[in-house]
Amino acid sequence: MRALVLVLVLVLLLLSFNSYATFHHEGKVTLHFVTGEQRTDKFVLALTREAGSYIFQVGNQSARLSSPPQKYALSVVLQQDREVWISDFAKQPLQAFTLEIAEHKIELKRDPQATSARGGFVLQYGNEEYFFGRGPAQINFNLKQSGIADIEIRGMFKPRR
Question: In what helix (H) or strand (E) does residue 12 lie, and over which residues does it extend?
Fold first, then answer.
């Protein structure tokens, strides 16, 4: 009887592990609005397995999915070379932002010395700088079972050195 109870407890523990987050990254995002206001918020990127499906959380939004996502794409839109819109972050235009999550830091700011950059906006990720191309930019978080595999910058280009 004790062996049966022990086996049952082990099976329940193993099943309950599936309900925990496959990954959970908690970072922060600092937003600089065109109004001059600045705000720092918690930023979560998480995947939880629950009842045969997955709960994918980005910031304060979440969605139930039938399979784990392969990537999360953050859209960055430069409007009239003056302001940036990131609807996943805010419902108003930005002048700059800094996102720190897991071991990654992405920063968008205006650099008056970057005269060839549209609007003077420069995105920095790692040791690389990027300028806006013609259309919207995307910051792609490629995902794996344990979290962020890597980050790719799309729709932007690296300036000549």
Answer: helix 2-17
